[in-house]
Structure formats: structure tokens, C-alpha cells
Amino acid sequence: MKNYLFTLTALSLLGYSLNTPAADPSVVAKVDRNLWQAPINTPDSFDKASRAAILEYIIALGNRGKLSDTDMKAAFNIKTVNRASVTQWLNKELALSLRNYQNAAKNCTNDDWTCVGTVTSTAHLLTQADNLASKIPPNLSAWHTNLAQFSRAYVAEQLRLAALFPNISSEIDFFNSNEWNGDNFTDRQFLLTFDDGPTQAQGNTDDTLAMLTANQKSAVFFVLGENLHNRINKTNADRVATLYKNQCVANHGWEHQSHAKWANWQDSIQRTQTLITSTLSTGNALPLFRPPYGQRQADSGAFFQQQGLQVALWNLDSQDWNKQVNSDHILNRMLTLMLIKRHGVLLFHDVHPKAKAALPLLFNEVGNAVEWRNCHSL
Ligand SMILES: [Zn+2]
Q1: What pairing do the DSSP bridges indicate for beta strands 344-349 and 285-289?
Q2: In order of start, what are the domains of the chain with their CATH numbers?
Q3: How far is the CA of 64 from the centre of ligand 1 (A)?
Q4: Ligand 1 mean position to 358 CA, how many Å?
Q5: For 291-317, what is the mean pLDDT?
Q6: CA of 333 relative to ligand 1 center, distance in Å
Q7: What is the pTM of this model?
């Protein structure tokens, strides 16, 4: 815990200085959910924590939106800034935050400091959020400082991706209407996804599947063709089909490399899709492709249409692949992002052991406040 607090302090300093790489991809936004000091396991308690988190988040969006190109280049350690992409992301995120706040405020009462009255525009919500500091109860001042730091660091992570798009493609934006990321899910509805498997038999994939079964949850596993092929060769296709029998499997390409700059990207997708559909029972194989790193070609839409595949991105990144992040960080980060974003697709990796430790605790903390989508309903 001490190390974690040290990281948080360092992170907040980075967040304030424009001359340091605040959004270096090695710097991950971390947060301490316990500072909220209240449960979030019912719709009403979740909504209250969500309203508070959205107000902090929108302040960070407003402040970060004022950064010049020069500021961003220095802060994010990048050479070019696509201003149009940055503006589009900020406007989209502000509009989503307004709608999320309105959804979270449906059961508001007058004596609740997180209820700021009827808000009808992002400008109005920004003004109300700026008035927040004076209303926060004294026992939540540590929460306020912590969540403000997290929001700044998280917005920096996302702005960096927006500044680089579409030169470097990612999950931050779409190229066409055949691509999605969970932003259009119903309020308080979430989907679990796991990338990069399967592992060898008795590895983290098996443990992750067992954890989901024990918690009666389903998920989409975006598998690498190469890993699936190896697993089938070492056991057999029937065993692999049985392994995933109540879950969903989709395509992450044959090898884990960018599908934006790879000459064989189409072959990678077709080979993997053929292997998935010939191995899994029909109901468990989904016609979805998730590009490694979110990287695909800008003009790839026609190919995916022709293959009958949708491009399935994500909007809640756990960063569980990152060595700086342990399962407790993941629990804190994902709970906080769920409060801020209120719906969407959670990204984990079943080749790592962290999600299988974090998720049972996360399911317990959110209780019946959210709906976990059945992967077969996609
Ligand atoms: Zn991946």
C-alpha cells in the first residue's frame, strides 16, 4: 500500500507539470476506491458515487481540453497532435458525461451534495462541477484529491491516444459504423472481455474460465489463432470446445501484432476465423474481430463487412498487462471507471493472472447495481 501511495503522489505531480510525460503509456492512472467510504452495491448507492465521480471527471476533461498542441506534445511526449481528433474525443466524452450524469441523477434528492439540479448542457454541467469543491463533505476531502488526480491521469491517457489518432489507430475512435466499443450500451450495463489466450492447458485461461463459472458470469474471449492452434494440437478440438462451452470466443488475429501495418493482416483474420468456427460450437463463436492494440487500417471497413465481422473495441481498459499494475490496482481502477463511464466493455487479458483475482471482489462490490451482459446476447 505504501508503494502505491508513493506512485499516486508521483502521478499527481506529473499530472500538474506539463514538462514531464504525464501521459507516458508507462504511467497508469491509479485510484483508492476506499476513500469514498460508502458501499456502491445497490442502484442508488452506485448512482451517488457515480454522480460524484462524473463531476470530478468532467473537471479534468474541461482542464485538459485547454491544453495547446505544444503543451500536449511536451506532456504526452509525442511529436504531432491531431487537433481535430482531440476536439472530437473531448466533445464526445463531454456529451457522454452529460448523459451519464443525467442517468445517475434520476433519483436525486435536494439534500444530496452530488445532486446539482437539472443539467441540460455540457457547459452547464462544467459550471456546476466547478462549484463542487465547496460542497464536498470534509470527510471526503481525501477522496476528492485522489479522484481529481486519477481523473487527470486517466484523461491524459485517453487524450494521448486521441492526439495520435488516426496516424496510430487505437480504441479511441471509429473508422466506420461497423466498429463499436460499448459506448452505446444501456445505462449500467457492462460486458467482460479477455484477450490474447488461450494459454497452455491448466494455465490462466482455465483459471479465468473457472472463476467466471463460479461467479455465474460470461465473457468474450478474443483468442489468437496461433494460441488456439497450439492448444488444440496439445489436446484436441473437442476439449477446447468444452473448455469454452458457456462462454463466447472471437477473433484477435493469428499473431499478436498491429493489423494496421502488417501485409498479411487479412490472412491473419481469415485463418483465425476458420479455426474458431471449425472448433467451437456455433452459438459460442461470435463474428467479432478485436485488433491487437486496437490497431487496424483506416480503410479496412469493406473487408470486415465482406467477412461478416464487426470490429469490437473497448472503453474500459484495465491495463492488466502492465507490470506497474497489480490486481488491487485493477480492482480500484475498474470500479472507478465503471462509476465514471456507467456502461461499456471491460478489457482484460486471460494470459495474465490479475483479472481472475480482481474480478470476484469487483462483482461483490458492485452487487446488484449493474447488469453484466451475457456474451450470447451480443
Ligand atoms: Zn491483445
Answers
A1: unpaired
A2: 36-164 (no CATH), 179-377 (3.20.20.370)
A3: 29
A4: 19
A5: 98
A6: 19
A7: 0.93
